[in-house]
Each structure stands twice: as C-alpha cells, then as structure tokens.
C-alpha cells in the first residue's frame, strides 16, 4: 500500500523498514481491472527482476515472478473522505542464479529507482534458494481529516542446504489534516492519491475558484 503510493504524495520522508521486501517495479506483463463493482481491483502479472534497481543487470538476485493483488473498499464516500480498505498481495519468485537477495536500500520516498543505491553501511542479505514467496496484508481507514493505514509482509525463502528462512515485518501509520483536507482514494489502483488543498498557497490557472491561503497542514 505504501510503495504503491506515488512519491510526490507520500505523507512521510521515508517508507517503513519492511519496504525492502517489496520487489518494486519490474519488467513484465500485467493485467489490471476493476472487479465485480467499482470498489474492487484485481491485478495479475508475470515479471522478470534484474539484480540492480533498474532491472538491467542480470546475475545473482535476478528472479522470475508471478504476482497478484486484490483490493476492496467496502466503504468509500467522497473519494476517500470516509474509507475502509482491505488488500492482499502475493508473489511467487524463482531465482535464475540460485540466490535470493534482499537489498537494504535507502527508504527515502523521494529517491526514484534509478537513484536508489545499496547502502555502503549495510550488506545485502544473500540466501541460496530454490524459490521465494511474498505475502502482504494491508488495511486503511479514513474519517474526514483523520486517516490510518497498516501492513504486514511475510517473506518465505526455501533455502538450499539449510532450513527455510522467514522474514516478516509490520508498520502502522496515521495522520490528521489541521486544515480540513483528506487523502483521496484511487479505486483503480487501490492506493492513496493526491490531496486537494482547500486554500492553496500558490494558485494555478485551474485553481482560481478556490480562495488563497496557507496551504494544507497535517501531523
């Protein structure tokens, strides 16, 4: 849920520590469509991940994966002003060179894939493996200016020459807009989108119908 939120609307300076488990964007073929109603989204795809952030370098850590995601928002009023969201994502990944690598990269949401580099202070986690399974459970709610979200991610690795390896983590976030705004919910992707500022500090041509002010403030 947090990795799927665009960096320029992400509410914090850094993502959570469990974001290192997320395979991020990879080359592949995906299908995205609304489900039985406008509140449900289904995604499925097959992807090839390289061993560098841009997926160009093949080698240890490159995988072929099948990934799926299902989200539903049984309550969604006012584009997320009143919201209840649930989501499930799963991924089965096969290492091409026999290694699963968990790269401990900077968690700044302002760094794009091409800018993110491995930390010189933290070594990558390298596990000789036959396959890897990722599972992500997510939930979010909003009521007016208050919002919260939480996620749990589990990472199962079938280690060659040893027992199974299991990593997991959890994060929970919340916030409140002092100026009355709310985070918009994007049903097509099952993620949070931009904030429509009630009184923008700088008004563009399309914002002339709104009074100028001190922008949106939140904590």
Features:
mainly beta; two-stranded antiparallel sheet; 219 residues; elongated; 0% helix
What report would you give on this structure?
The chain has 219 residues and is mainly β. The chain has no helices and 10 strands. The protein has strands at residues 27-34, 40-49, 63-77, 82-95, 99-102, 125-143, 146-159, 165-176, 183-186, 191-195. Strands 1, 2, 3, 4, 5, 6, 7 and 8 form an 8-stranded antiparallel β-sheet that branches. A hairpin with a 4-residue loop joins strand 9 and strand 10. The chain is elongated and about 65 Å long. The two termini are 20 Å apart. The model has no long low-confidence stretch (mean pLDDT 86).
Describe what is shown at a glance:
This protein is an all-beta fold. Helix content is 0%, strand content 48%. It has no helices and ten strands.
How confident is the prediction overall: mean pLDDT?
Answer: 86
Number of helices: 0
Total number of strands? 10
Rg, alpha carbons:
19 Å
How much helical structure, as a percent, in the residues? under 10%
User: Structural class, from helix and strand content?
Assistant: mainly beta
Main sheet makeup: 8 strands, antiparallel
State the shape.
Answer: elongated
Q: What percent strand?
A: over 45%
Distance between the termini: 20 Å
N-to-C order of helices and strands: EEEEEEEEEE
Poorly predicted runs: none
